[in-house]
Amino acid sequence: MLKAINKGIEGLGRWAEFSIRVFKTFTSKGVSSTSLVEQMYHVGVRSLPITIVSGLFVGAILAIQINLQLKDFGAQTFLGGLSTSTTLRNLGPVLIAFLLSGRVGAFTSAELGTMAITDQLNAIRCLGMDPVEKIVVPRLVALTCSSFLLLILGLGMTVVGGVVISSAHLGVNPIQFSQNISLFVSSWSIGIGVVKSFLFGLMIGTISCFFGYHTAGGARGVGRAVKRTSVATLVSIILMDFLVSTALESLKTFFEIMANS
Amino acid sequence: MNMLEVKNLSKVLGERQVLENMSLSVQQGEILFVLGRSGVGKSVLLKTIVGLIHQDKGEVWIDGEKTHPERELAMVAVRRQCGLVFQSPALFDSMTVKENLIFGDEDKARHISATMAWLKLPEKILNFYPSELSFGFQKKVSLLRTLLSNPKYLLFDEPTTGLDPVTTNLVNDVIRDCAKARNMGCLVVSHDLQSAYHLADRIVLIDQGKIALSGTPSNFKESDYPLAVAFRKGTINFAEGY
User: Fold this and answer.
1) Among A21, A40, A162, B225, who pairs with A142 as Cys (CB 3.0-4.6 Å)?
2) How far is A144 from chain B (nearest CA, A)?
3) How far is Cα A167 from Cα B56, in angstroms, rounded to an integer?
4) What is the predicted ipTM?
5) Structural contact between residues A83 and A234, judged by C-beta atoms closer than 8 angstroms
6) Number of domains making up chain B
7) Residues of A whose CB is below 8 A from B47
8) At B98, which CATH number?
9) A139 in reach of chain B (CB within 8 A)
10) Is B154 contained in some domain?
11) What's the CA gap between A136 and A31, in Å, rounded?
C-alpha cells in the first residue's frame, strides 16, 4: 500500500517536472505555426462531429432527467434555467472532457508512445534537436487549445440539445425554455464552465503527452501508456472539477462578502 | 589525434551487467566492427556514446574532449558530431521521406540529390511516406538522413540486418566510402561476420559485457577464443555456452 502511494507521488512529481519542462520550452522557443495548425487539424477538426453529437445528447439527457424531478412539483418552467446551469457549470464540461480524453488523449499517448518505442524520439535527439520542442510542444499546445475550443462548442451544443429535446418531447417550447435561463445562469456560471474547460484541456494534454513520451517496452508498453493516460485523465478531471468548483464557489462567496461589507 | 574514445564504460540494466569496463577507440578514416551475440549490449554501447543512455561508470571522449551525458544541451553538439544509424529505420512515419530528410534544417535539401545518387535511391520516393517503402529502402533513407547531417563519426547499429545481399553490399560500400573517401570514423556493431571481414580495419568481440578479443580481421580468423570459433562456424557449443 505504502509502495503504491510512494509510486503515485513519484509519478506525480515526474509529471509536474515534465509539464514544467514543456512549459519552459514553449515560453523560450515558442511553437512552429505549421506544426500547430497540422496538429490542431488532426486533434481538433477531426473531433468536431463527435463533440457536436455528444454535446447534443448530453444536453438532451440532462433535460430529460431534470424534467422528471420538476414535473412532480409542476415546476417545468424552470427546466431551461436548471438544465442549462447544470450543464454549463458542471456536467457538460466533465462529460465532454471524458469523451475527449478517450478520443484525443488516448490517440496522442499512443502516437507518442509508438514514436518512443520505434526510436523516432531518439532519432530527433541524434539529429541534434529536442523532441520536446519539435514533437511534444506542438501537440500539447494544439491539444490544450483544441480541447478548450471543443469543450466550449460542446457546452453550446448541450444547451441546443436541451432546447431541442424539451420542445420535441417534454412539451416546453424554446421560448419557455429560455425564459428562466437568466435566473440561473450568470456570467459567473459561464466563467466557471470556461475555466474548467481550459483546465480539463490542459490536463488531457499534459497527461497524454507525459505517458506517451515516457513509453518503454514495445507494443505492451504502448498499451500500458494508453491505459494509464485514460485512467489518469478521468481521475484528474473529476479531482480538478471538485477543486475548481470548491475554489470558485469560495471565491464567489468572498467577493459577495466584500461587496456587502 | 582526432578520435572517438570509450574509456572503462560500465552499465547495469536491471540486474544485468551489460557493459563492464569497456574501452575502445575509433580514429577518423577507420572502420571498427564490434561483434557479439544478440543482447550482449552492443546497441547499449552506441546509445551510451551519444548520451541516449547514461553510463554508470566510465567516460566518452571525442577529439580530446570529454562528453557530459548529464548535460542534455552539451550532448547536442556531440550528437551532431556522432551520427547514429539505428537498427530500426526510426523514420518519422507521419512525414514524407523529404520531410524526414530536412527535419529541423531545411538547408539539407541542397544535398539530397547527390546523397540519394550515392545511395542509389530514386528521387521519386521523396514524396512517399515511410510505410510505403520496403524495409531496405527505409534503412537506406535512415542512413541518408544521418549522412545529411555530415557527422565526423558514424555509429551503425546492425546496418545490414534484414537486408538482401545486393542492398547489404551497397550499405557496406557506403560505410567504406564514408571512412576511406570522406575520412569519417565508423563504429559498426553487428553480428554479420562477412561484412566485418570485408570492411573492418579492426574487430572487437564482446562477450558477457567485456571485450574478449580485439585485433585485425586476420587475428579474428586465427583466434581460438570459443566465441570467435562459434562465430566462424556459425554453431554454438552449448556445453561451453558458445
Assistant:
1) A40
2) 21
3) 70
4) 0.85
5) no
6) 1
7) 122
8) 3.40.50.300
9) no
10) yes
11) 10
Residue B242 has pLDDT above 80, yes or no: no
Q: Which three cell numbers stand for residue B35?
A: 561483434
The pLDDT of residue B142: 94
A24 interfaces chain B, CB cutoff of 8 Å: no
Residue B240 pLDDT exceeds 70:
no
pLDDT of residue A236: 94
| Inter-chain CB proximity A115 and B103 less than 8 Å | no
Q: Tell me which residue in A122, A130, A134 faces B90 most closely, judged by beta carbons.
A: A122
CA nearest to B77, candidates B152, B8, B27, B24: B152
Domain extent for B62 = 3-233
A46 reaches B (C-beta below 8 A):
no
Is residue A102 within 8 Å of A207, Cβ to Cβ? no
pLDDT band at B235 (very low <50, low <70, confident <90, very high): low
Query: What pLDDT is stored for residue B176 in this prediction?
Result: 93
Q: Does A134 touch chain B (CB under 8 A)?
A: yes
Picking from A111, A123, A134, the nearest residue to B90 by CB comes out as: A123
The β-bridge relationship of strands B57-62 and B185-190 is: unpaired
Cα distance between residue A182 and residue B115, in whole Å: 68
CA nearest to A42 within chain B: B94
> CB of B55 within 8 A of CB of B41?
no
Judged by CB atoms closer than 8 Å, whether chains meet at B90 and A128 is answered as no
Question: In chain A, which stretches have pLDDT less than 70?
Answer: none
pLDDT digits (tens, 9 = 90+) for A55-89: 899 899 989 999 988 888 888 888 888 888 888 88
CB contact residues (below 8 A), chain A span 56-85, against chain B: none
Task: Assess if residue B181 is contained within a domain.
Answer: yes
- Burial class (CB within 10 angstroms; exposed 0-12, middle 13-18, buried 19+) of B14: exposed
What is the tens place of the pLDDT at every residue in A168-192? 988 888 888 888 888 888 888 888 8
| Numbered residues of chain B with Cβ closer than 8 Å to any chain A Cβ | 47, 50, 52, 72, 75-77, 79-80, 83-84, 86, 88, 90-94, 103-104, 142, 145-146, 149
| pLDDT, tens digit (0-9, with 9 covering 90-100), for B78-87 | 998 999 999 9
